[in-house]
Design a protein that fits this description.
The chain has six helices and twelve strands. By secondary structure, the chain is of the alpha/beta class. A twelve-stranded mixed sheet has the order 2-1-3-4-5-6-7-12-11-10-8-9, sandwiched between helices. Helix 5 runs parallel beside helix 6. This is Acyl-protein synthetase LuxE domain-containing protein.
């Protein structure tokens, strides 16, 4: 249950990877206001997600972009105002905090992308993705929930633009291993353990066998279905309570 660490010799590789990856799926960052609801990440040092989002906030070159800790009321006012003004917004949040937000306020957003970054990580009871996204869609008044798939061990991210299907940048690939034989890979559509090849990990390890369960759904796209039984609840946002 110790915090993951990834020793990076040159942060420019990380910056180039997430900047190019974001641009591939979302276009020019300057087209958006970036609002970040990442309380547990902000409460500790060394989060790779905070590093990435802080850089995206700066690159957005918009004074409205920024982080929010527990000041939900301020975030609600800004989100409603900017969305009503027609501003394109990306709200990236840890899952439990997004649920907290829609419990405080029901929205009807027209110009906002909601991006969740993973599971509850010990803060709330885990629920299946379909149920989670239904709650968030209803709460924010949007038709799709976007997701980011990343971890400390990777310098790249995969993104889901809806329906829980993730796509990888061209230098990242997903393979699914047989749960009973780690040296064998299963066919498309079959469930198994997610292995990641991340060529941005140029000076560390480019081949990561995760404890996530998933399946390949198409050309370099995949779904995350859960975790192996008895595996640790991991993630940058796991805090010891």
């Amino acid at each position: 249950m110790s915090t993951s660490k990834h020793h990076v010799t040159d942060l420019e590789f990380y910056e180039e990877s997430y900047r190019l990856g974001f641009r591939q799926f979302y276009g020019n960052i300057e087209d958006y206001v970036v609002l970040a609801l990442l309380p547990s990440y902000l409460e500790r040092e060394g989060s790779s997600l905070i590093y990435m989002v802080d850089d995206l906030i700066q690159l957005s070159n918009n004074p409205e972009s920024g982080f929010y800790l527990n000041n939900y009321d301020d975030l609600i006012k800004k989100l409603v105002r900017l969305d009503n003004e027609g501003q394109n917004i990306i709200l990236i949040g840890v899952t439990y905090a997004l649920l907290d937000l829609v419990e405080k306020q029901k929205f009807n957003l027209k110009n906002t992308i909601i991006m969740e970054t993973g599971g509850m990580k010990g803060r709330r009871k885990e629920i299946i993705r379909e149920e989670l996204h239904e709650i968030l869609c209803n709460g924010f008044g949007v038709s799709e929930i976007h997701s980011e798939y990343g971890m400390t061990e990777l310098l790249s991210q995969a993104y889901s633009l809806g329906n829980g299907v993730f796509e990888c940048p061209s230098w990242m690939q997903i393979l699914v291993r047989d749960p009973e034989d780690a040296l064998t890979y299963v066919k498309e559509g079959k469930t198994g353990g997610i292995n990641v090849i991340d060529l941005a990990n140029i000076n560390s390890c480019s081949f990561i066998a995760t404890q996530d369960l998933g399946k390949i759904t198409g050309n370099n796209s995949f779904e995350v279905l859960g975790r192996f039984d008895n595996s640790d609840i991991r993630g940058c946002n796991l805090m010891v309570l």
